[in-house]
Amino acid sequence: MRILYIGAGDIGLPALTWLLGSGHQIAAVVTQPDKPAGRKLELKPSPVKQLALAHGVPVFQPVKIRDPEAVAQVRAFAADLIVVMAYGQILPKGVLDAARIACINLHASILPRHRGAAPIQSAILSGDNETGITVMYMDEGLDTGDILLIRRLPIRRHETGGTLQDRLAAATPAALAEAIALLEAGTAPRIPQEGTRATYAKKLGREDGKIRWERPCLEVARHIRAMNPWPGAFALLPDSEGGTPRKVKFFSAAQNPRHSGPPGQVLRADARGILAGCGSGSLLLCEIQMEGKRRMPVRDFLAGRPVPPGTILGTPNGNHP
């Protein structure tokens, strides 16, 4: 088949890599425009673009794929199949209808659960036992199209947003290969989603990393894992000399449901980590990053910056969330 790939996120790289070696004809790759990066803010191509160019595949980077000129260019690629993953823009009807056979999306959740932009983090935050890759036929709604197939993955006990993304990315080639085989054979099913079971995962911003210590330690631990590595779960650490509090990020924590204390208060800080109170129970914080510094074990951080018991790990809106 002649296939057009539309995507921008790193999670789609394994699927694109598989497509490039699958024997199908890749008409082009559509991705986001290059973005400024580094101190000099020089334009940097995404890994998706770099991979496509390395294989001699044309790359199209519209600012807005809804623009009539962009839609016309997509249709000019004359694809039999359009494959979409983590693109970051809503596709208009003109693009959805451009493929001869179908426009399909690889979504990183078991739909209709966790529709939207941050399904991986949402699954961890919700305490789900499993997630997966859903291959669906795209329509004009937000992840509302009929399901072609689902490949399921268990969510591990200490799963982070980063590790779960890597595992889901690795699962996409097999899911895509199976879906394409079914489409080629004309036996691909169309299973309507149960809209009443739908949940939504909004796009994450930096402020979504704010730790809310008043929640139970189980929920705070999930939050820290879900926000690792981005945007990072954070709090404010008071300056030891009375200056402006500094933002610190935490990347791993162990629950202690039997040992409670005031939310956000440091109960103990030693070689084992920083023990902080939550709404119920407490958390032993094990990995930390001061703003502008590298990540490190809490014990190494404490060797140069003691944190006395009684310190309040606050938030930008005050000492307590």
Could you explain the architecture of this structure?
With 321 residues, the protein is of the alpha/beta class. The chain is elongated and about 65 Å long. It folds into 2 domains: 2-201, Formyl transferase, N-terminal domain (Rossmann fold), CATH 3.40.50.170; 206-304, Formyl transferase, C-terminal domain (Methionyl-tRNA Fmet Formyltransferase, Chain A, domain 2), CATH 3.10.25.10. 24% of the residues lie in helices and 27% in strands. The chain has a 7-stranded mixed β-sheet with strand order 5-2-1-6-7-9-10. Strands 12, 13, 14, 15, 16 and 17 form a 6-stranded antiparallel β-sheet that branches. Helix 1 packs parallel to helix 2. The model has no long low-confidence stretch (mean pLDDT 95). The chain has helices spanning 13-20, 47-54, 68-76, 93-96, 119-125, 161-185, 217-226, 298-304, and strands at 2-7, 25-30, 35-37, 42-44, 59-60, 81-85, 102-107, 115-116, 130-137, 147-154, 200-201, 233-237, 246-256, 266-270, 273-277, 282-290, 296-297.
Task: Give the topology.
Blueprint: E1 2-7, H1 13-20, E2 25-30, E3 35-37, E4 42-44, H2 47-54, E5 59-60, H3 68-76, E6 81-85, H4 93-96, E7 102-107, E8 115-116, H5 119-125, E9 130-137, E10 147-154, H6 161-185, E11 200-201, H7 217-226, E12 233-237, E13 246-256, E14 266-270, E15 273-277, E16 282-290, E17 296-297, H8 298-304
Helix pairs in contact: 1-2, 1-6, 5-7
